[in-house]
Amino acid sequence: MEEKTSKAxxxxxxxxxxxxxxxxxxxxxxxxxxxxxxxxxxYAVSTAYVTADAVDKGKKAAVVHGDNPGKxxxxxxxxxxxxxxxALASVxxxxxxxxxxxxxxLSVLGRTTKWPLPVRKWTTTVVGLVTIPFIxxxxxxxxxxxxxxxxxxxxxxxGKHK
Length: 162
Known about the structure:
The chain is mostly helical. It has 6 helices and no strands. Helix 2 (23-29) runs antiparallel to helix 3 (36-65) and helix 4 (71-112) packs antiparallel against helix 5. It is elongated, with a radius of gyration of 19 Å. 28% of the residues are buried.
């Protein structure tokens, strides 16, 4: 008989909702093809995801710490740690990375091919979309290292987000 372990599902990390954090990366990949205002909408979606995850982790910390002394501090640490980690790993660094990959791609294609502009723009978009899966893990690990080496030392929570 198979033994099942009962682990609570984290809607922000274990379900399709997690992909909302990548909305801005998709927006950056399509920047050459869509109005910039639409790209900013994708940043709003990703930022809403980051904020919702941080609030969720704060609520969970509040439940875990009940009426114990230091509850407010523990809740604040949970919210700040999650928000900073998600903002860096889900929005700021990947958005910048995809933006630069696409800009470089469009520039290189413009200098090295005679393809019409629409073809170069679509190619750039495909390059951006294909790049997304390859940058996720290195960025996540780098943000873990950054926070473990800085912010988490302040509140003694190394490996908090793992």
